[in-house]
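Entry 14. Structure prediction run on the chain below.
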Amino acid sequence: MSIVKVENVRVLDPIAQTDQIETIFIQDGKRIEATSDVHESIDGKGKWLMPTMVDLCARLREPGQQQHGTLKSEGKAARENGILHVFTPPDSKPIVQDNGALIHGLVEKAMLDGGIYLEVIGAQTQGLQGNQPANMAGLKKGGCTAVSNANAPFANDDVVLRTLEYAAGLNLTVVFYAEEPQIAKDGCVHEGFIASRQGLPMIPALAETVAIAKYLLMIEATKVRAHFGLLSCGASVELIRIAKEKGLPVTCDVAMHQLHLTESLIDGFNSLAHVRPPLRSESDKELLRQGVKSGVIDAICTHHEPLSSSAKMAPFAETLPGFTAFDSYVPFGIKLIEEGLFSPLEWVEKVTSAPAAVAQMTETWKAQAGWVLVDPDLEWTLDKSSIISQGKNTPLINQKVKGKVIRTFIK
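Output returned:
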């Protein structure tokens, strides 16, 4: 119940649309009126104060893969990096996200162990097998607002259509991580010169764009609300732009690392750069940036995927894909600002109010959100000792970065 006074801090408030130097008072994570009953004073000069963030895609690895991460370890990593609301895809091992009763327990455990609001995306098909629709009515009763088949393929397009019709009838959002399996096959990296030279199996950009085009036609036919997660190709941005201009009920996001990193990092078989969808070309990166800037891409997510060190030790194509991303999220955001893509307030919107709006939880987020104190000038090294996540799997390992959350004010 203590009251904290933060003096002379730059307050970035996406709800009020204000960016100004203020002295504010915080109690239990909420801003309150000025008072003399202060328990702690902080000099906020040169610092930013922003709301806690909303992450539309992160894998926390529990249940079933605790060797990579747990709700406790990854919840702590999210909180300390300023992320309070986390959406997770329905592909735990074993699959529990096709059972509404089990989902409720998972959400409770995430708050108890990790102190975060976990938003579970339900399974679109039973066991993610792609054959039969999951019990979406039960999932909605269990608290799900969205369903997805994650990266699992569908048996055929008829199954996709039936699940979209089912979801539309329940007013559920369908989340697509678009990839056409017949084109992607056993690929693991972007189709390009570096992959060819190293003899690695490739995932063409067409694997994503063909899937998006097909799903957009189905969305138009069924009128289901849909979200495309983790765009990686420049051509995908154009498809979404056209769909939005037609008035289709679609939104999309991009992982923060796709706005910074490219296929060049896989050179030398660097398995720490193995992620899915893969890092793409420099041209794709620039078109994704333009998509976020223009608003075609609604939000930026972490795509956090913690992995144990052994998961990255096999030959490249046999390693598990994924980056640990909570700890680099703010430094990457600061870099976008320094490179002139966003103003500080515009960046804050893309990681707070915009993803909350995509998830149709604006009022819930405003009621539950706390505040985050960021030092945009703090330089530090992203190494195994400073990464809070249990997973240390990042191609940025041992690199110096700039910008860090130095305090969170959460109830």
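The chain has one domain: 52-370+383-401.
Filed with the rest of this week's runs.
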